[in-house]
């Protein structure tokens, strides 16, 4: 039976979503095309009807995963984002958690198309937090300084999550990293907010 264009697109999206979760859970080298297609409910041979290579799927699935994180972050204040990001729940949810933390190290060794997707993903996360490139500053806030602060915060939380996940799940250090870094980043955000209020003459 011939597959309709709509069904073919739905099948492609299913493969991308399955790959996004499996790559985050096992890493790019930990999932073969055959296993990935089987997990999505398709045969190995069907892969090349949708993608030219595994690298193409890696890039597309990374964009899918990062978009999920950006959607959760969109409109959230930075403190709420940090509390969720450096929670034990997020740490343990590799397959559905942040693609940047799960695959950032792997991405550095991948083709340029994959790394370009991660770069675009960083920008999308910054935009979701209101720190995108070229955005107008609000209430007299220096947008370049705000963007620098967001980048600093994002690098800290991603790094903390990577370090925590590198420890055994039952290790006290895994939790200590989350707690210490969460508290430090939140304190830094509070201090920055205080400095901004002082400059504006508001308290």
UniProtKB/TrEMBL annotation:
Gene Ontology molecular function terms on file: DNA binding
Domain of life: Bacteria
InterPro entries named among the record's database cross-references: Homeodomain-like_sf, HTH_TetR, Tet_transcr_reg_TetR-rel_C_sf
TM regions (residue ranges): none
Organism: Pseudoduganella flava
Domain spans labelled HTH tetR-type: 9-69
Protein keywords: DNA-binding, Transcription, Transcription regulation
A Pfam family recorded for this sequence: TetR_N
DNA-binding region per UniProt: 32-51
Entry protein name: TetR family transcriptional regulator
């Amino acid at each position: 039976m011939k597959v309709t264009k709509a069904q073919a697109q739905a099948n492609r999206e299913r493969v991308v979503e399955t790959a996004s979760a499996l790559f985050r859970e096992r890493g790019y080298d930990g999932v073969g095309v055959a296993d990935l297609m089987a997990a999505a409910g398709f045969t190995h041979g069907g892969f090349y009807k949708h993608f030219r290579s595994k690298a193409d799927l890696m890039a597309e699935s990374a964009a899918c995963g990062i978009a999920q994180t950006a959607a959760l972050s969109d409109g959230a204040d930075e403190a709420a984002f940090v509390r969720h990001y450096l929670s034990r729940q997020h740490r343990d949810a590799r397959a559905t958690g942040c693609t940047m933390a799960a695959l950032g190290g792997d991405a550095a060794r991948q083709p340029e198309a994959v790394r370009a997707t991660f770069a675009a993903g960083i920008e999308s996360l910054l935009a979701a937090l209101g720190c995108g490139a070229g955005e107008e500053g609000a209430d007299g806030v220096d947008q370049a300084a705000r963007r620098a602060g967001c980048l600093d915060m994002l690098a800290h939380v991603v790094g903390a999550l990577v370090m925590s996940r590198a420890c055994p799940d039952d290790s006290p250090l895994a939790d200590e990293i989350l707690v210490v870094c969460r508290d430090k980043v939140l304190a830094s955000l509070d201090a920055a907010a205080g400095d901004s209020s002082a400059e504006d003459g508001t308290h």
